[in-house]
Design goal:
The chain is about 20% helix and about 35% strand. It has eight helices and 26 strands. The strands form six sheets. Strands 8, 18, 19, 20, 23, 24, 25 and 26 form an eight-stranded mixed sheet that branches. A six-stranded antiparallel beta barrel has the order 1-2-5-4-3-6. A four-stranded antiparallel sheet has the order 12-11-9-14, with no helix packed on it. The relative contact order is 0.14. Pfam families: ATP-synt_ab, ATP-synt_ab_N, ATP-synt_ab_Xtn. It catalyses: ATP + H2O + 4 H(+)(in) = ADP + phosphate + 5 H(+)(out). It is an enzyme of class 7 (translocase). GO terms for molecular function: ATP binding; proton-transporting ATPase activity, rotational mechanism.
Length: about 425
């Protein structure tokens, strides 16, 4: 992993590479010795977000998640030393993100533009909003391990028990825990010590999108996934934690079925990923969802209160389509670890595969059937295998599930 710069010019120079060549969203950078696969980089003077996807001697191939027009040979490439990660914590619901978890409303408010400015940096979770935090059963001196629930937050009337989890790889003895009160997601509320090293934790943590969140045990699915369409529930039933495909040609109504599943299904949380779909379809989702409501305990609640939207339409950079799928499944796994049943809509996975085909072609890789890369099956498997019902890490014991509903368009002959 790249060394962290301490402010000296020598370490700053050691962190900087230079653009060697540009081909659409694929950039080759030189002087990148020490970088790691899937490391996050900032490319050019605008600091465009990119990810290392191939390493060859001192050159690294980077897929850039923003428009690369204007990049020139010799522009700086800054290594971050971290993989592409998402922020997980209170505030995910009712938010609309792009493919790399940048909140679109916050970008609009900050830039005053209807377009996403290149290289803009906006936090995924609101750093100013305060949340009502209640500590759990843990107190100073208790041992705590990854996945343990050490507090809850009231997020909204549909998600009134957003559980605060210790990150899966953390463990130690509690030396300080905050009292009940209102805090921001950045404030450090928990301090733990392990082998003489103290670490602090807030209500949010980050997780790499390409790494599945660990679980205690995978369970066999035993509960029906009610999608709310009687013809589908009777003729094509599914289970919570299953993977569902909606095949159909262009304009046949796949998106309509995805949207109706989002509205009527018996899931606790919906993660809707518009991956490469038409911009007007995503705009329709953004207009309709705030007006839709569901009956919970005799009261009507807006469906947006249990929904997280990731909009990565066909007119957005092609490389971010791949990232949007991983961003969505990581957010879904986070709510699964809280003991929720999550439904993730991928609309559509075939356009995701087309994005892989375009990137593969630019990389000069050997094409397989219909021009798709030979590793398409492995990429699809790495996404679909993250669905399922499982027992979460930590205490108290809880079960959650991730159900994937993916729209698939047949190839045009």
């Amino acid at each position: 992993m790249a060394p962290s710069g301490k402010g000296s010019s020598s370490s700053e120079d050691a962190q900087l590479g230079a653009v060697f060549s540009v081909s659409g969203p694929v950039v080759v950078a030189e002087n990148m010795i020490g970088c790691a696969m899937y490391e996050l980089c900032r490319v050019g003077h605008d600091q465009l977000v990119g990810e290392v996807i191939r390493i060859d001697a001192d050159k690294a191939t980077i897929q850039v998640y923003e428009e690369t027009a204007g990049l020139t040979v010799g522009d700086p490439v800054m290594r971050t030393g971290k993989p592409l990660s998402v922020e997980l914590g209170p505030g995910l619901m009712e938010t609309i993100y792009d493919g790399i978890q940048r909140p679109l409303k916050a970008i609009s408010d900050e830039s005053g533009s209807i377009y996403i400015p290149r290289g803009i940096k906006v936090n995924a979770l609101d750093r100013k909003k305060k949340w009502d935090f209640k500590p759990g059963k843990y107190k100073v001196g208790d041992h705590i391990t990854g996945g343990d629930i050490w507090g809850t937050v009231f997020e909204n009337s549909l998600l009134n028990d957003h559980k605060i989890l210790l990150p899966p790889r953390a463990k130690g003895t509690i030396t300080r825990i905050a009292e009940a009160g209102s805090y921001t997601v950045e404030e450090q509320l928990l301090e733990i010590e392990f082998n003489g090293v103290k670490t602090t934790h807030g209500m949010m943590h980050t997780w790499p999108v390409r790494v599945p969140r660990p679980v205690n045990e995978k369970q066999s699915a035993d509960s029906p996934f009610i999608v709310g369409q009687r013809v589908l529930d009777s003729l094509f039933p599914s289970v919570l934690g299953g993977t569902v495909c909606i095949p159909g040609a262009f304009g046949c109504g796949k998106t309509v079925i995805s949207q109706s599943v989002s509205k009527f299904s018996n899931s606790d949380v919906i993660v809707y990923v518009g991956c490469g779909e038409r911009g007007n379809e995503m705009a329709e989702v953004l207009m309709d969802f705030p007006e839709l409501s569901i009956d919970i305990g005799g009261r009507k609640e807006p469906i947006m209160k249990r929904t997280c939207l990731i909009a990565n339409t066909s007119n957005m950079p092609v490389a971010a389509r791949e990232a949007s799928i991983y961003t969505g499944i990581t957010i879904a796994e986070y709510f699964r670890d809280q003991g929720k049943n999550v439904a993730m809509m991928a609309d559509s996975s075939s356009r995701w595969a087309e994005a892989l085909r375009e990137l593969s072609g630019r990389l000069g890789e050997m094409p397989a059937d219909q021009g798709f890369p030979a590793y398409l099956g492995a990429k699809l498997a790495s996404f679909y295998e993250r669905a399922g019902k499982s027992t979460a890490l930590g205490s108290p014991e809880r079960e959650g599930s991730v159900s994937i509903v993916a729209a698939v368009s047949p190839p045009v002959r």
